[in-house]
Amino acid sequence: MTRFPRIHRTWPMAVLALALGGAASAQTGGSNTTGPAQTPGANTSPTPGNAYPAGRGMYGWSEGNYSLIPYSSHGYIGFNAGTTDWDAPCGTGGFACDDSNSAFHLYTGGMFNQYIGAEIGLIDFGRADRGGGRVKAHGLNLSLVGRIPMGRLSVFGKFGTLYGRTDSEVSPGSGLTAGKDSGWEGSYGVGVGFDFTPRSSIVLEWNRFDLNFEGVGQRNITTTSLGYVHRF
Prior knowledge:
By secondary structure, the chain is mainly beta. The protein has one helix spanning 11-28, and strands at 73-86, 103-111, 116-130, 133-150, 153-169, 179-197, 200-213, 217-231.
């Protein structure tokens, strides 16, 4: 397995610094970042033939300022479900070695400007069969998000960190070590979104999360998921 250099473990601080930088940029950008002011009482709903005006993009930049993420606006909440691929070892002795059937990701995010935002979310990777037992994993994910809006479609990338916890229950003859481990490691991913209403989207994502496993060290879990996003 390809290992990342030791600088990979500094991602939590790097992500925090970049998030604070984005927040500061958003604060100094002034009111011009949200476009021209609307006339009181004016109808801001999309008109037929022009449902997604230029600049609105995936997360409705021309509407809504509420967010749960500090120093951000245009917030959203999402839920993804998908499949996993575990890099954790199977052990010896001919025991079953299968990945978990599903993973779930509940998250919320906000935008510092039209293209840069941040997310925080909880991830459950399920249970994988390893070494005559089962290995469980879950974590708290923090990510910076970069988006390129293209009308109803958008593409995005995520770069961040995961505080992950793993719990390995294995048989003595498996050659694996039972126990719990935790810690901050890196994460990244890419995806595409499609708006089917001004406030609702579906997203397709691929993500990689690094976690620490007892007696093994750093390994990764990748997820491919489909999700629903609602904008405030």
